[in-house]
Amino acid sequence: MTITTTDFQRWASAHQQRIEVQLKAALPSAELAPQRLHQAMRYVALGGGKRVRPLLAFAAGEVTRADVGRVAIAGAAVELIHAYSLVHDDLPCMDDDVLRRGKPTCHVEFDEAIALLAGDALQSLAIQLLAEHRLADDPSAQLEMVRLLAAAAGSRGMAGGQAIDLAAVGVTLSLPELEFMHIHKTGALIRAATLLGARCGAALDAAELEQLDRFSKCIGLAFQVVDDVLDTDATTATLGKTAGKDARHNKPTYVSVLGVADAKKLAGELRGDALDALDGFGERALRLRQLADFIVLRKF
After folding, report:
1. Domain ranges of the chain
2. Cα Rg, the chain, nearest whole Å
3. Percentage of residues in the chain with pLDDT exceeding 70?
4. 20 backbone φψ class: left, alpha, beta (φ>0; ψ -120 to 50)
């Protein structure tokens, strides 16, 4: 099945490049002291990944006709949080992985202490970006953006989801329990990316914000379902990270709970729910719809 059009590919490529430029500008120079820390930050944040979260921010910004420069800063902030989470997730005390985005993980390339500090610094830089740039006309809207990203990264979001994930090793989870974990671990940052992009533009009413949140909640879960299937089906070379590690570590996944076929079916259902949530936005939500297809159908 064809999951992207040439037009979408051009759009995605242009915005991926825009985020790369924004990240390069935001990150401290590798020549600036402390050099090794700054080298590690740039090593993990630049030159890799699909940039799905910033793309969601850009796509949501089109719904509200947001200035693309503002969205680029918000998208970079989200991507910095994502990069920090990968650095910490790969540490020996967490998932203990040696490969990420096709290259050695941060603690392998540098060392554990620098990796820990790099993650800390990336997280604080993300909040700094949201605070020092004018991203919304209404100051209270920008303050809400800071709150959204901080909450998505915290104990009621991504960090909390990772804690649940670590506690679930060797435990059989029900489907609702698995969804609860991933609404936090994976979904929180995806939801924040969408809402931050939208808030860079014209104000939406509560019902419209709820529609976007519903879309991103569904597509965030679908993203994780697809990741679990790919961890079973794809190779390390294809993924750019160690394949099959969830099964080896006895971690609950959508595949372990449902099986591959039903996991794929669930991903399709979540995609349908996500697309339904965009009803009423018309052509403004075209890129969000295309991203939903990209996320769910990328490797099936």
Report:
1. 6-297
2. 18
3. 93
4. alpha
DSSP 5: -
| 235 dihedral zone (left: phi>0; alpha: psi -120 to 50; beta) | beta
Structure tokens at 256: 């372990």
Q: Is the peptide bond before 34 cis (omega within 30 degrees of 0)?
A: yes
**Which helix (H) or strand (E) element contains residue 99?**
strand 99-100
Surface-to-core class of residue 2, CB atoms within 10 Å of its CB (0-12 exposed, 13-18 middle, 19+ buried)? exposed
Which residue has 């809207």 as its token pair? Answer: 141
What pLDDT score does 84 carry? Answer: 98
What does the block give as tokens for 268? Answer: 């399709």
Rounded Cα distance between 160 and 277, Å, is: 26
H-run or E-run covering 40? helix 35-45
Q: pLDDT per residue over 96-153, tens digit each?
A: 999 998 899 999 999 999 999 999 999 999 999 999 999 999 999 999 999 999 999 9
What 8-state DSSP symbol labels residue 253? -
Number of Cβ atoms within 10 Å of the Cβ of 274: 25
CB of 251 closer than 8 Å to CB of 80 = no
User: What are the Cα distances from residue 240, in Å, to 7, 74, 230, 277?
Assistant: 26, 26, 11, 32
The reply to whether CATH 3.10.105.10 applies to domain 6-297 is: no
C-alpha separations of 214 from 17, 74, 115, 181, 190 in Å: 28, 20, 34, 17, 11
Determine the Cα–Cα distance for residues 95 and 85; give it in Å rounded to an integer.
Answer: 11
The packing angle between helices 206-233 and 260-276, to 10°, is 160
Residue 222 corresponds to which amino acid?
A
Confidence of residue 298 (pLDDT cuts 50, 70, 90): confident
**Minimal CA–CA distance to 90: which of 114, 59, 74?**
114
